[in-house]
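Replying to the earlier thread about multi-chain prediction with a worked example.

Input:
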Amino acid sequence: MDTSRPIIALDLPSAEAALDFVGKFDEPLFVKVGMELFYAAGPSVITSLKDAGHDVFCDLKLHDIPNTVKGAAASLSRLGADLLTVHAAGGKAMMEAALEGLGGAAQTTRVVAITQLTSTSPEALKAEQLIEVPLAESVRNYAQLAQSAGLAGVVCSAHEAADIASVTGPDFLRVTPGIRPAGAAVGDQSRVATPGNAASMGSSAIVVGRPITKADDPVAAYHAIRDEWNAGRRSA
Ligand code: C5P
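Result:
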């Protein structure tokens, strides 16, 4: 999995919009298909993106009983997903079932866990989930649980990446959204990092949506972000 490429979040309303967008690039990309696009366009958008030569991250945040998640992971890996997400809150048995669903040894799909959603506040953690430990401790706990289940890593904020690596070791992936080039619109993201900061704070891969998809020149925006990310990784 080539994480020198920023993963572009294709939060777009249709397969046509997604394929038009990737058609602007004359190089293989690593793209993320989330719920908006998947539920609008259906599974064929994944095969279309794969057929066009791109790596695909299926960010569908699976969370159900183990047998159902095993089947969902099997379906997504058959479509060619290179990376997919499950909720660590579904438990160790559910995460292990996701891996079982991937099937044979030739399968290259990797699975990463959502720990606590970055939209969950410390107050909601306590009041709604009845979790009394600090948010960072809950995130570390879920990361270790995901690692013990055999997953490849977690999705987290760049600000959590080093803390997670301190308990999981450096090879456990920290895939980080919430990336904004200096001066870009933050939108609804709260704890953002620049591509260079994400590299120095310990991200293993970055996910970037609107700073690329809404740019006047998406190809130039992508290359600038990719160059900053890789320069940061070399000096980290
Ligand atoms: O447009 P933007 O760069 O904010 O897109 C970030 C992408 O990462 C979106 O697809 C969003 O759903 C996803 N994401 C996130 N925060 C998380 C998990 C996923 O922003 N904690």
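The first strand starts at residue 7 and ends at 9.

Feel free to reuse this layout for your own posts.
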